[in-house]
Design a protein that fits this description.
Strand order of the largest sheet: 1-2
Strand content: under 5%
Order of helices and strands: HHHHHHHHHHHHHHHHHHHHHHHHEE
CATH class of the largest domain: Mainly Alpha
CATH architecture of the largest domain: Up-down Bundle
Radius of gyration: 31 Å
Number of helices: 24
Helix content: 55-70%
Number of strands: 2
Structural class: mainly alpha
Length: 528
Protein backbone atom coordinates (compact mmCIF):
# COMPACT_ATOMS: atom_id res chain seq x y z
CA UNK A 1 0.00 0.00 0.00
CA UNK A 2 1.37 3.46 -0.92
CA UNK A 3 0.45 6.38 1.35
CA UNK A 4 0.29 10.02 0.43
CA UNK A 5 3.10 11.98 2.07
CA UNK A 6 3.00 15.64 2.93
CA UNK A 7 5.98 17.76 1.95
CA UNK A 8 5.49 20.13 4.95
CA UNK A 9 6.85 19.81 8.50
CA UNK A 10 4.14 18.20 10.67
CA UNK A 11 5.31 20.14 13.83
CA UNK A 12 4.63 23.58 12.36
CA UNK A 13 1.22 25.19 12.92
CA UNK A 14 -0.84 25.81 9.84
CA UNK A 15 -0.15 29.32 8.60
CA UNK A 16 -2.64 31.31 6.55
CA UNK A 17 -2.22 30.60 2.85
CA UNK A 18 -0.63 33.42 0.88
CA UNK A 19 -1.00 33.98 -2.81
CA UNK A 20 2.42 32.91 -3.96
CA UNK A 21 3.66 32.09 -7.38
CA UNK A 22 2.78 28.45 -7.95
CA UNK A 23 5.51 26.38 -9.44
CA UNK A 24 4.71 24.20 -12.40
CA UNK A 25 3.88 20.68 -11.31
CA UNK A 26 6.70 18.28 -11.83
CA UNK A 27 6.06 14.99 -13.54
CA UNK A 28 8.73 13.26 -11.42
CA UNK A 29 7.70 11.73 -8.06
CA UNK A 30 8.29 13.75 -4.83
CA UNK A 31 10.62 12.08 -2.34
CA UNK A 32 10.08 13.00 1.31
CA UNK A 33 13.20 13.32 3.54
CA UNK A 34 11.33 13.41 6.87
CA UNK A 35 11.28 9.68 7.38
CA UNK A 36 10.72 9.98 11.15
CA UNK A 37 7.29 11.57 10.62
CA UNK A 38 5.98 8.79 8.44
CA UNK A 39 5.68 5.32 9.94
CA UNK A 40 5.70 3.78 6.49
CA UNK A 41 8.65 5.57 4.99
CA UNK A 42 9.74 2.46 3.12
CA UNK A 43 6.72 2.79 0.87
CA UNK A 44 7.83 6.30 -0.06
CA UNK A 45 11.33 5.15 -0.88
CA UNK A 46 9.87 2.51 -3.19
CA UNK A 47 8.10 5.08 -5.39
CA UNK A 48 11.10 5.89 -7.65
CA UNK A 49 11.66 2.16 -8.08
CA UNK A 50 8.02 1.70 -9.10
CA UNK A 51 8.30 4.57 -11.59
CA UNK A 52 11.49 3.20 -13.11
CA UNK A 53 10.01 -0.28 -13.38
CA UNK A 54 6.89 1.10 -15.07
CA UNK A 55 8.96 3.11 -17.51
CA UNK A 56 11.02 0.04 -18.27
CA UNK A 57 7.84 -1.91 -19.02
CA UNK A 58 6.60 0.87 -21.32
CA UNK A 59 9.94 1.11 -23.12
CA UNK A 60 10.03 -2.66 -23.48
CA UNK A 61 6.53 -2.70 -24.98
CA UNK A 62 7.44 0.10 -27.40
CA UNK A 63 10.61 -1.76 -28.37
CA UNK A 64 8.66 -4.97 -29.01
CA UNK A 65 6.11 -3.08 -31.11
CA UNK A 66 8.90 -1.47 -33.12
CA UNK A 67 10.55 -4.85 -33.59
CA UNK A 68 7.27 -6.35 -34.83
CA UNK A 69 6.89 -3.50 -37.33
CA UNK A 70 10.43 -4.05 -38.61
CA UNK A 71 9.77 -7.76 -39.06
CA UNK A 72 6.51 -7.00 -40.86
CA UNK A 73 8.26 -4.51 -43.16
CA UNK A 74 10.93 -7.05 -44.07
CA UNK A 75 8.33 -9.72 -44.77
CA UNK A 76 6.30 -7.27 -46.86
CA UNK A 77 9.34 -6.30 -48.92
CA UNK A 78 10.24 -9.94 -49.51
CA UNK A 79 6.71 -11.12 -50.25
CA UNK A 80 5.47 -8.36 -52.55
CA UNK A 81 8.90 -7.41 -53.91
CA UNK A 82 9.49 -10.96 -55.08
CA UNK A 83 5.88 -11.22 -56.27
CA UNK A 84 6.09 -8.16 -58.50
CA UNK A 85 9.57 -9.19 -59.67
CA UNK A 86 8.27 -12.63 -60.72
CA UNK A 87 5.32 -10.93 -62.40
CA UNK A 88 7.76 -8.88 -64.49
CA UNK A 89 9.93 -11.95 -65.12
CA UNK A 90 6.98 -13.67 -66.85
CA UNK A 91 8.33 -12.21 -70.09
CA UNK A 92 11.12 -14.85 -69.83
CA UNK A 93 8.89 -17.91 -70.54
CA UNK A 94 6.54 -15.91 -72.75
CA UNK A 95 9.40 -14.95 -75.07
CA UNK A 96 10.15 -18.64 -75.53
CA UNK A 97 6.45 -19.43 -76.00
CA UNK A 98 6.00 -16.72 -78.66
CA UNK A 99 9.01 -17.96 -80.64
CA UNK A 100 7.78 -21.54 -80.25
CA UNK A 101 4.37 -20.65 -81.70
CA UNK A 102 5.80 -18.49 -84.50
CA UNK A 103 8.63 -20.81 -85.63
CA UNK A 104 7.84 -24.35 -84.49
CA UNK A 105 4.04 -24.24 -84.88
CA UNK A 106 4.14 -21.76 -87.83
CA UNK A 107 1.09 -19.82 -86.69
CA UNK A 108 -0.43 -17.07 -88.84
CA UNK A 109 0.26 -13.53 -87.47
CA UNK A 110 -3.42 -12.95 -86.72
CA UNK A 111 -3.74 -16.40 -85.14
CA UNK A 112 -0.69 -15.72 -82.97
CA UNK A 113 -2.19 -12.44 -81.77
CA UNK A 114 -5.53 -14.16 -81.09
CA UNK A 115 -3.81 -16.84 -78.99
CA UNK A 116 -1.84 -14.22 -77.06
CA UNK A 117 -4.93 -12.23 -76.15
CA UNK A 118 -7.30 -15.16 -75.66
CA UNK A 119 -4.93 -16.30 -72.94
CA UNK A 120 -5.67 -13.02 -71.12
CA UNK A 121 -9.37 -13.82 -70.69
CA UNK A 122 -8.93 -14.93 -67.02
CA UNK A 123 -7.68 -11.41 -66.32
CA UNK A 124 -11.13 -10.04 -67.14
CA UNK A 125 -12.61 -11.80 -64.09
CA UNK A 126 -10.29 -9.92 -61.70
CA UNK A 127 -13.17 -8.06 -59.99
CA UNK A 128 -14.61 -11.41 -58.97
CA UNK A 129 -11.27 -12.43 -57.46
CA UNK A 130 -11.05 -9.09 -55.67
CA UNK A 131 -14.57 -9.39 -54.23
CA UNK A 132 -13.85 -12.94 -53.05
CA UNK A 133 -10.56 -11.78 -51.52
CA UNK A 134 -12.31 -8.96 -49.63
CA UNK A 135 -15.32 -11.03 -48.54
CA UNK A 136 -14.06 -14.58 -47.91
CA UNK A 137 -11.30 -15.15 -45.37
CA UNK A 138 -9.22 -18.32 -45.23
CA UNK A 139 -7.93 -19.00 -41.70
CA UNK A 140 -8.50 -15.35 -40.79
CA UNK A 141 -6.43 -14.03 -43.74
CA UNK A 142 -7.70 -12.29 -46.87
CA UNK A 143 -4.63 -11.82 -49.09
CA UNK A 144 -1.82 -14.34 -48.62
CA UNK A 145 -3.97 -17.50 -49.11
CA UNK A 146 -5.07 -16.18 -52.50
CA UNK A 147 -1.46 -15.30 -53.31
CA UNK A 148 -0.47 -18.90 -52.59
CA UNK A 149 -3.42 -20.22 -54.59
CA UNK A 150 -2.39 -18.21 -57.64
CA UNK A 151 1.21 -19.36 -57.35
CA UNK A 152 0.12 -22.99 -57.17
CA UNK A 153 -1.91 -22.71 -60.39
CA UNK A 154 1.03 -21.11 -62.19
CA UNK A 155 3.44 -23.83 -61.06
CA UNK A 156 1.01 -26.47 -62.31
CA UNK A 157 0.51 -24.91 -65.76
CA UNK A 158 4.16 -24.15 -66.56
CA UNK A 159 5.19 -27.59 -65.32
CA UNK A 160 2.70 -29.12 -67.77
CA UNK A 161 4.18 -27.09 -70.63
CA UNK A 162 7.68 -28.15 -69.60
CA UNK A 163 7.15 -31.86 -68.91
CA UNK A 164 4.20 -32.93 -71.11
CA UNK A 165 5.10 -32.84 -74.85
CA UNK A 166 1.49 -32.82 -76.04
CA UNK A 167 0.88 -29.57 -74.15
CA UNK A 168 3.51 -27.87 -76.34
CA UNK A 169 2.66 -29.39 -79.72
CA UNK A 170 -1.17 -29.40 -79.80
CA UNK A 171 -2.60 -25.87 -79.89
CA UNK A 172 -5.80 -26.50 -77.84
CA UNK A 173 -3.79 -28.09 -75.00
CA UNK A 174 -1.28 -25.26 -75.16
CA UNK A 175 -4.07 -22.67 -74.90
CA UNK A 176 -5.59 -24.56 -71.94
CA UNK A 177 -2.26 -24.58 -70.08
CA UNK A 178 -1.73 -20.88 -70.74
CA UNK A 179 -5.27 -20.11 -69.54
CA UNK A 180 -4.54 -21.90 -66.24
CA UNK A 181 -1.30 -19.96 -65.93
CA UNK A 182 -2.98 -16.60 -66.45
CA UNK A 183 -5.78 -17.59 -64.07
CA UNK A 184 -3.22 -18.13 -61.32
CA UNK A 185 -1.33 -14.97 -62.29
CA UNK A 186 -4.50 -12.87 -62.15
CA UNK A 187 -5.44 -14.19 -58.69
CA UNK A 188 -1.91 -13.51 -57.42
CA UNK A 189 -1.86 -10.01 -58.92
CA UNK A 190 -5.19 -9.13 -57.29
CA UNK A 191 -3.92 -10.29 -53.89
CA UNK A 192 -0.63 -8.39 -54.34
CA UNK A 193 -2.28 -5.13 -55.42
CA UNK A 194 -4.78 -5.27 -52.55
CA UNK A 195 -2.02 -6.11 -50.07
CA UNK A 196 0.09 -3.15 -51.21
CA UNK A 197 -2.88 -0.75 -51.08
CA UNK A 198 -4.02 -1.97 -47.66
CA UNK A 199 -0.52 -2.02 -46.16
CA UNK A 200 0.26 1.47 -47.46
CA UNK A 201 -2.94 2.95 -46.01
CA UNK A 202 -2.55 1.11 -42.70
CA UNK A 203 1.04 2.26 -42.09
CA UNK A 204 0.61 5.59 -43.94
CA UNK A 205 3.34 4.77 -46.46
CA UNK A 206 2.92 6.61 -49.75
CA UNK A 207 4.41 5.65 -53.07
CA UNK A 208 4.30 1.88 -52.63
CA UNK A 209 2.84 1.56 -56.12
CA UNK A 210 5.97 3.22 -57.52
CA UNK A 211 8.23 0.70 -55.78
CA UNK A 212 6.00 -2.10 -57.07
CA UNK A 213 6.50 -0.76 -60.59
CA UNK A 214 10.26 -0.74 -59.96
CA UNK A 215 10.25 -4.40 -58.94
CA UNK A 216 8.07 -5.18 -61.96
CA UNK A 217 10.48 -3.39 -64.28
CA UNK A 218 13.50 -5.06 -62.67
CA UNK A 219 11.99 -8.48 -63.32
CA UNK A 220 11.22 -7.50 -66.90
CA UNK A 221 14.78 -6.28 -67.43
CA UNK A 222 16.36 -9.52 -66.28
CA UNK A 223 13.80 -11.71 -68.06
CA UNK A 224 14.28 -10.02 -71.41
CA UNK A 225 18.04 -9.73 -70.92
CA UNK A 226 18.66 -13.45 -70.48
CA UNK A 227 15.61 -14.66 -72.42
CA UNK A 228 17.09 -14.20 -75.88
CA UNK A 229 20.40 -15.78 -74.86
CA UNK A 230 18.75 -18.79 -73.23
CA UNK A 231 16.50 -19.23 -76.25
CA UNK A 232 19.56 -19.71 -78.45
CA UNK A 233 21.25 -22.16 -76.10
CA UNK A 234 18.37 -24.34 -74.88
CA UNK A 235 14.86 -25.47 -75.89
CA UNK A 236 11.76 -23.59 -74.66
CA UNK A 237 10.77 -26.32 -72.20
CA UNK A 238 13.99 -25.71 -70.20
CA UNK A 239 13.00 -22.07 -69.82
CA UNK A 240 9.58 -23.23 -68.61
CA UNK A 241 11.29 -25.38 -65.95
CA UNK A 242 13.38 -22.41 -64.75
CA UNK A 243 10.30 -20.23 -64.39
CA UNK A 244 8.42 -23.00 -62.57
CA UNK A 245 11.28 -23.16 -60.06
CA UNK A 246 10.99 -19.43 -59.36
CA UNK A 247 7.24 -19.79 -58.90
CA UNK A 248 7.85 -22.64 -56.45
CA UNK A 249 10.15 -20.36 -54.41
CA UNK A 250 7.45 -17.68 -54.31
CA UNK A 251 4.93 -20.32 -53.24
CA UNK A 252 7.14 -21.43 -50.33
CA UNK A 253 7.55 -17.83 -49.13
CA UNK A 254 3.78 -17.29 -49.32
CA UNK A 255 3.10 -20.38 -47.20
CA UNK A 256 5.72 -19.31 -44.62
CA UNK A 257 4.34 -15.75 -44.15
CA UNK A 258 1.53 -15.00 -41.71
CA UNK A 259 -0.73 -12.12 -42.58
CA UNK A 260 -1.06 -10.95 -38.97
CA UNK A 261 2.71 -10.33 -38.83
CA UNK A 262 2.27 -7.64 -41.50
CA UNK A 263 0.10 -5.60 -39.12
CA UNK A 264 -2.96 -5.36 -41.35
CA UNK A 265 -6.51 -5.88 -40.14
CA UNK A 266 -7.60 -9.39 -39.26
CA UNK A 267 -11.13 -10.75 -39.25
CA UNK A 268 -12.21 -12.30 -35.98
CA UNK A 269 -14.07 -15.57 -35.78
CA UNK A 270 -17.11 -13.96 -34.13
CA UNK A 271 -17.50 -11.53 -37.00
CA UNK A 272 -17.20 -14.33 -39.51
CA UNK A 273 -19.88 -16.32 -37.70
CA UNK A 274 -22.30 -13.39 -37.59
CA UNK A 275 -22.00 -12.61 -41.29
CA UNK A 276 -22.48 -15.22 -43.94
CA UNK A 277 -20.39 -15.41 -47.08
CA UNK A 278 -23.29 -14.26 -49.27
CA UNK A 279 -23.82 -11.18 -47.08
CA UNK A 280 -20.13 -10.32 -47.30
CA UNK A 281 -20.15 -10.69 -51.09
CA UNK A 282 -23.27 -8.51 -51.42
CA UNK A 283 -21.68 -5.88 -49.20
CA UNK A 284 -18.46 -5.88 -51.23
CA UNK A 285 -20.38 -5.61 -54.50
CA UNK A 286 -22.41 -2.71 -53.08
CA UNK A 287 -19.26 -0.95 -51.85
CA UNK A 288 -17.61 -1.46 -55.24
CA UNK A 289 -20.60 0.03 -57.08
CA UNK A 290 -20.61 3.03 -54.74
CA UNK A 291 -16.86 3.54 -55.22
CA UNK A 292 -17.06 3.33 -59.02
CA UNK A 293 -20.06 5.70 -59.09
CA UNK A 294 -17.92 8.46 -57.62
CA UNK A 295 -16.99 10.89 -60.40
CA UNK A 296 -13.45 11.27 -59.07
CA UNK A 297 -12.96 7.56 -59.86
CA UNK A 298 -15.33 6.92 -62.78
CA UNK A 299 -14.15 9.72 -65.08
CA UNK A 300 -10.41 8.85 -65.00
CA UNK A 301 -11.33 5.16 -65.28
CA UNK A 302 -13.41 5.72 -68.42
CA UNK A 303 -10.63 7.82 -69.95
CA UNK A 304 -7.84 5.29 -69.44
CA UNK A 305 -10.02 2.42 -70.68
CA UNK A 306 -11.04 4.34 -73.79
CA UNK A 307 -7.49 5.48 -74.55
CA UNK A 308 -6.38 1.84 -74.69
CA UNK A 309 -9.40 0.22 -76.36
CA UNK A 310 -9.68 2.62 -79.30
CA UNK A 311 -6.10 2.08 -80.51
CA UNK A 312 -5.83 -1.10 -82.65
CA UNK A 313 -2.97 -3.34 -81.52
CA UNK A 314 -0.69 -4.79 -84.21
CA UNK A 315 1.89 -6.41 -81.94
CA UNK A 316 1.45 -9.90 -83.40
CA UNK A 317 1.90 -8.68 -86.97
CA UNK A 318 4.94 -6.58 -86.02
CA UNK A 319 6.50 -9.54 -84.18
CA UNK A 320 6.03 -11.86 -87.18
CA UNK A 321 7.41 -9.17 -89.50
CA UNK A 322 10.55 -8.84 -87.38
CA UNK A 323 11.15 -12.59 -87.09
CA UNK A 324 10.02 -13.84 -90.53
CA UNK A 325 10.74 -10.92 -92.85
CA UNK A 326 13.67 -9.14 -91.21
CA UNK A 327 15.00 -12.37 -89.62
CA UNK A 328 15.95 -10.58 -86.42
CA UNK A 329 17.80 -12.64 -83.83
CA UNK A 330 15.89 -13.53 -80.62
CA UNK A 331 18.66 -11.84 -78.63
CA UNK A 332 17.99 -8.54 -80.41
CA UNK A 333 14.27 -8.68 -79.60
CA UNK A 334 15.01 -9.62 -75.99
CA UNK A 335 17.57 -6.82 -75.57
CA UNK A 336 15.17 -4.30 -77.13
CA UNK A 337 12.69 -5.10 -74.39
CA UNK A 338 15.47 -4.81 -71.80
CA UNK A 339 16.12 -1.27 -72.95
CA UNK A 340 12.40 -0.60 -72.77
CA UNK A 341 12.25 -1.91 -69.20
CA UNK A 342 15.20 0.32 -68.27
CA UNK A 343 13.26 3.26 -69.68
CA UNK A 344 10.22 2.21 -67.63
CA UNK A 345 12.30 1.88 -64.47
CA UNK A 346 13.93 5.28 -65.01
CA UNK A 347 10.56 6.87 -65.71
CA UNK A 348 9.11 5.36 -62.53
CA UNK A 349 11.98 6.75 -60.43
CA UNK A 350 11.65 10.17 -62.05
CA UNK A 351 7.90 10.16 -61.49
CA UNK A 352 8.31 9.27 -57.84
CA UNK A 353 10.94 11.99 -57.32
CA UNK A 354 9.89 14.86 -59.61
CA UNK A 355 7.01 14.25 -62.02
CA UNK A 356 4.49 13.52 -59.28
CA UNK A 357 4.43 17.28 -58.61
CA UNK A 358 3.33 18.01 -62.18
CA UNK A 359 -0.38 18.41 -62.87
CA UNK A 360 -1.80 14.98 -63.68
CA UNK A 361 -3.77 16.30 -66.63
CA UNK A 362 -0.68 17.91 -68.11
CA UNK A 363 1.50 14.84 -67.47
CA UNK A 364 -0.96 12.39 -69.04
CA UNK A 365 -1.40 14.69 -72.05
CA UNK A 366 2.35 14.73 -72.69
CA UNK A 367 2.61 10.96 -72.20
CA UNK A 368 -0.27 10.34 -74.64
CA UNK A 369 1.39 12.50 -77.32
CA UNK A 370 4.67 10.65 -76.74
CA UNK A 371 2.84 7.32 -77.07
CA UNK A 372 1.25 8.33 -80.38
CA UNK A 373 4.61 9.51 -81.72
CA UNK A 374 6.38 6.31 -80.65
CA UNK A 375 3.94 4.26 -82.75
CA UNK A 376 5.45 5.84 -85.87
CA UNK A 377 8.81 4.22 -85.07
CA UNK A 378 7.42 0.92 -86.37
CA UNK A 379 6.58 2.71 -89.62
CA UNK A 380 10.24 3.68 -90.02
CA UNK A 381 11.23 0.03 -89.62
CA UNK A 382 8.54 -1.24 -92.01
CA UNK A 383 9.41 1.30 -94.73
CA UNK A 384 13.14 0.66 -94.13
CA UNK A 385 13.78 4.39 -93.70
CA UNK A 386 16.39 3.55 -91.08
CA UNK A 387 18.59 1.95 -93.77
CA UNK A 388 18.57 5.25 -95.70
CA UNK A 389 19.85 6.90 -92.52
CA UNK A 390 22.60 4.30 -92.24
CA UNK A 391 21.06 2.55 -89.20
CA UNK A 392 20.90 -1.28 -89.45
CA UNK A 393 17.64 -3.04 -88.67
CA UNK A 394 19.16 -4.75 -85.61
CA UNK A 395 20.33 -1.46 -84.09
CA UNK A 396 17.05 0.35 -84.78
CA UNK A 397 14.94 -2.51 -83.41
CA UNK A 398 17.23 -2.75 -80.39
CA UNK A 399 16.79 0.91 -79.48
CA UNK A 400 13.22 1.75 -80.52
CA UNK A 401 11.22 -1.45 -81.05
CA UNK A 402 9.57 -1.66 -77.62
CA UNK A 403 9.30 2.06 -76.83
CA UNK A 404 5.57 2.38 -77.56
CA UNK A 405 4.73 -0.56 -75.30
CA UNK A 406 6.81 0.90 -72.45
CA UNK A 407 5.18 4.33 -72.74
CA UNK A 408 1.77 2.64 -72.61
CA UNK A 409 2.80 0.82 -69.41
CA UNK A 410 4.13 4.00 -67.80
CA UNK A 411 0.83 5.78 -68.54
CA UNK A 412 -0.86 3.43 -66.06
CA UNK A 413 1.33 4.51 -63.10
CA UNK A 414 -0.35 7.87 -62.29
CA UNK A 415 -3.77 6.20 -62.49
CA UNK A 416 -2.65 3.41 -60.13
CA UNK A 417 -1.51 5.99 -57.58
CA UNK A 418 -4.74 7.98 -58.03
CA UNK A 419 -7.05 5.00 -57.50
CA UNK A 420 -4.99 3.75 -54.54
CA UNK A 421 -5.43 7.13 -52.82
CA UNK A 422 -9.15 7.31 -53.57
CA UNK A 423 -9.89 3.68 -52.70
CA UNK A 424 -12.35 3.37 -49.76
CA UNK A 425 -11.26 1.32 -46.77
CA UNK A 426 -12.19 -2.35 -47.05
CA UNK A 427 -12.59 -2.12 -50.84
CA UNK A 428 -8.90 -2.30 -51.80
CA UNK A 429 -9.04 -5.72 -53.41
CA UNK A 430 -12.30 -5.10 -55.28
CA UNK A 431 -11.38 -1.70 -56.73
CA UNK A 432 -7.81 -2.56 -57.74
CA UNK A 433 -9.06 -5.80 -59.29
CA UNK A 434 -11.79 -3.94 -61.18
CA UNK A 435 -9.19 -1.51 -62.49
CA UNK A 436 -6.91 -4.35 -63.63
CA UNK A 437 -9.84 -6.17 -65.22
CA UNK A 438 -11.00 -3.08 -67.07
CA UNK A 439 -7.49 -2.46 -68.38
CA UNK A 440 -7.18 -6.09 -69.47
CA UNK A 441 -10.56 -6.00 -71.19
CA UNK A 442 -9.60 -2.82 -73.02
CA UNK A 443 -6.33 -4.45 -74.14
CA UNK A 444 -8.23 -7.48 -75.46
CA UNK A 445 -10.62 -5.17 -77.32
CA UNK A 446 -7.63 -3.34 -78.78
CA UNK A 447 -6.08 -6.65 -79.86
CA UNK A 448 -9.24 -7.88 -81.58
CA UNK A 449 -9.61 -4.50 -83.23
CA UNK A 450 -6.03 -4.88 -84.49
CA UNK A 451 -6.76 -8.37 -85.82
CA UNK A 452 -9.74 -7.02 -87.74
CA UNK A 453 -7.69 -4.12 -89.08
CA UNK A 454 -4.88 -6.43 -90.20
CA UNK A 455 -7.37 -8.71 -91.95
CA UNK A 456 -8.98 -5.76 -93.74
CA UNK A 457 -5.57 -4.51 -94.89
CA UNK A 458 -4.54 -7.97 -96.09
CA UNK A 459 -1.58 -8.50 -93.74
CA UNK A 460 -0.37 -12.11 -94.04
CA UNK A 461 2.84 -14.06 -93.43
CA UNK A 462 4.05 -13.32 -96.96
CA UNK A 463 2.66 -9.81 -97.43
CA UNK A 464 3.25 -7.02 -94.90
CA UNK A 465 2.59 -4.08 -97.21
CA UNK A 466 -0.64 -3.25 -95.39
CA UNK A 467 1.24 -2.51 -92.16
CA UNK A 468 1.90 1.05 -93.32
CA UNK A 469 -1.78 2.01 -93.30
CA UNK A 470 -2.29 0.08 -90.07
CA UNK A 471 0.42 2.02 -88.24
CA UNK A 472 -0.96 5.35 -89.49
CA UNK A 473 -4.41 4.32 -88.23
CA UNK A 474 -2.83 3.56 -84.83
CA UNK A 475 -1.23 7.01 -84.71
CA UNK A 476 -4.48 8.84 -85.46
CA UNK A 477 -6.47 6.74 -83.00
CA UNK A 478 -3.94 7.46 -80.22
CA UNK A 479 -4.51 11.21 -80.62
CA UNK A 480 -8.31 10.98 -80.19
CA UNK A 481 -8.30 10.62 -76.32
CA UNK A 482 -6.68 14.06 -76.02
CA UNK A 483 -10.11 15.50 -76.84
CA UNK A 484 -11.45 14.34 -73.44
CA UNK A 485 -8.37 15.18 -71.39
CA UNK A 486 -10.42 17.62 -69.29
CA UNK A 487 -12.11 14.68 -67.51
CA UNK A 488 -8.87 13.95 -65.63
CA UNK A 489 -8.13 15.68 -62.30
CA UNK A 490 -5.59 18.46 -62.20
CA UNK A 491 -3.54 16.85 -59.42
CA UNK A 492 -3.31 13.79 -57.19
CA UNK A 493 -5.41 13.84 -53.98
CA UNK A 494 -3.34 14.92 -51.00
CA UNK A 495 -4.01 13.88 -47.43
CA UNK A 496 -5.25 16.81 -45.35
CA UNK A 497 -2.85 17.99 -42.68
CA UNK A 498 -3.97 18.67 -39.13
CA UNK A 499 -4.15 22.24 -37.97
CA UNK A 500 -1.27 23.40 -35.81
CA UNK A 501 -3.09 24.19 -32.58
CA UNK A 502 -0.45 23.08 -30.08
CA UNK A 503 2.52 25.13 -28.98
CA UNK A 504 6.05 24.20 -29.93
CA UNK A 505 6.85 22.82 -26.50
CA UNK A 506 3.54 20.95 -26.33
CA UNK A 507 4.27 19.37 -29.70
CA UNK A 508 7.73 18.29 -28.52
CA UNK A 509 6.49 16.69 -25.36
CA UNK A 510 2.98 15.42 -25.95
CA UNK A 511 1.21 13.51 -23.24
CA UNK A 512 0.08 10.29 -24.92
CA UNK A 513 -1.17 8.16 -22.11
CA UNK A 514 -1.57 7.61 -18.39
CA UNK A 515 -0.83 4.45 -16.44
CA UNK A 516 -2.62 4.02 -13.11
CA UNK A 517 -1.01 1.77 -10.51
CA UNK A 518 -2.93 1.86 -7.25
CA UNK A 519 -3.13 5.55 -6.34
CA UNK A 520 -0.02 6.58 -8.25
CA UNK A 521 -0.52 8.24 -11.62
CA UNK A 522 2.54 7.90 -13.80
CA UNK A 523 2.67 9.83 -17.02
CA UNK A 524 4.90 8.96 -19.90
CA UNK A 525 6.04 11.29 -22.60
CA UNK A 526 6.85 10.72 -26.20
CA UNK A 527 9.22 12.84 -28.27
CA UNK A 528 7.28 13.97 -31.31
Amino acid sequence: MIYAVSSQNPWVWNMPKLHKHRAKPSLSPVVCLLNHSNPTGNAVNERPTLTVMTRRVVVKEVYKEKEREDVGNRQMVLLCGLGYWVQGFRCFPWLALNFHMATNLNLHPSTLQLVQNTANLPMVAKPLYGILSDAICINGARRIPYLAMGGLLQVLSWSLLALVPIAQEVLPYLIAAVLISNLGASIAEVAQDALVAEYGKKHKIGGLQSYAFMALAAGGILGNLIGGYFLQKMPPRTMFVIFSSLLSLQLVISFSTREESLGIGQISGQKLSRQSISENIRKQVSDLVVAISDKSISQPLVWIIGSIAMVPMLSGSIFCYQTQCLNLDPTVIGLSRVIGQFVLLSGTVLYNRFWKKISMRKLIGMVQILYASSLLLDLILVKQINLKWGIPNEVFALCFSGLAEIVAQFKLLPFSVLFANLCPKGCEGSLTAFLASALCLSSIASAFLGVGLASCLGVTSGDYSGLTMGILAQFLAALVPLRWLHSLPMSQPVEKRRKRSMSRRARRNRRVGKVVLGSVNIYRRERE
